[in-house]
Specification:
Blueprint lengths: L2 E6 L2 H12 L15 E4 L4 E6 L1 H9 L5 E5 H5 L6 E5 L5 E7 L13 E4 L2 H10 L5 E4 L6 H4 L5 E6 L3 H5 L3 E9 L1 E5 L1 H6 L1 H12 L3
Parallel strand pairs: 1-3, 1-4, 7-8, 7-9
Antiparallel strand pairs: 2-3, 4-11, 5-11, 6-9, 6-10
Bound molecules: 1-O-pyrophosphono-5-O-phosphono-alpha-D-ribofuranose.
The site of 1-O-pyrophosphono-5-O-phosphono-alpha-D-ribofuranose (PRP) has 12 residues, from strand 9 and helix 6.
Pfam family, one: HisG
Catalytic activity: 1-(5-phospho-beta-D-ribosyl)-ATP + diphosphate = 5-phospho-alpha-D-ribose 1-diphosphate + ATP
EC number: 2.4.2.17
Length: 207
């Protein structure tokens, strides 16, 4: 049976396809993909969908994708209605708390505001610190929020640290190391067990 695999567009797409190629899958479509969003590896009967991380989870939960490659950051914010099969050891980064040098997050007894794309993770982190803070959900480019006065700090992911540095922010605390995971639709895992296990074995042998 054919496998449908959702890939997270962007940085993770490149490292996912590098990994799949290393495992011997035919990803030659990547050389000439233009703006297309669906690709086929006819040799292995696999279709790839290029989508945003949260949508990759939705496609898996609804069973139109059997598998997906998604960052643990997005998985931690989701409802977990899937199987997490494998740590792919790609897309490695960490959750951090960051702010301006003269921030007052831990010293201030007043109202603290934190902007983030990851409200669940941020809430969980401040709970462990026994701190009651206001979490403000932002969709992207979160580093700008403390610079223009929206918040005292941000909870975000950091890979190279360049975005923080170029915006004059510093890491105040490291929260959690994360990486990309292979997830599976629960029904597909039974119905297409042979194909999924075969895929899993080829990938896990190199990651
Ligand atoms: C992520 C993250 C940071 C940046 C960190 O954003 O939210 O902004 O990458 O990477 P760095 O440490 O290598 O600089 P992304 O590029 O996904 O864009 P977004 O902010 O629009 O979501």
């Amino acid at each position: 049976m054919a496998l449908n695999i959702a890939l997270t567009k962007g940085r993770l797409e490149i490292s996912s396809l590098d990994l799949f190629e290393k495992a011997g899958f035919n990803c030659s479509f990547r050389n000439n993909k233009g703006r297309k969003l669906i690709f086929k590896d006819l040799d292995n009967d696999i279709s790839y969908f290029l989508v945003k991380a949260n949508d990759a989870i939705t496609y898996v939960e609804h069973g139109v994708a059997d598998l997906a490659v998604v960052g643990k950051d997005s998985l931690l914010e989701s409802s977990s209605n899937y199987y997490e099969l494998l740590d792919l050891n790609i897309g490695k980064c960490k959750f951090i708390l960051a702010g301006l040098k003269d921030n007052n997050i831990f010293s201030n007894s007043g109202h603290i505001k934190i902007a983030t794309k990851y409200p669940k993770v941020a809430k969980g982190y401040f709970k462990t610190k026994n701190m009651d803070v206001e979490i403000i959900k932002i969709e992207g480019s979160v580093e700008i929020a403390p610079l223009i006065g929206l918040c005292n700090g941000i909870v975000d992911i950091m890979e190279t640290g360049t975005t923080l540095k170029e915006n004059g922010l510093i890491v105040l605390d490291e929260i959690l190391n994360i990486s990309a995971r292979l997830i599976a639709n629960r029904a597909s895992f039974n119905l297409k067990q042979k194909e999924i296990v075969n895929f899993l074995e080829r990938i896990s042998s190199i990651c």
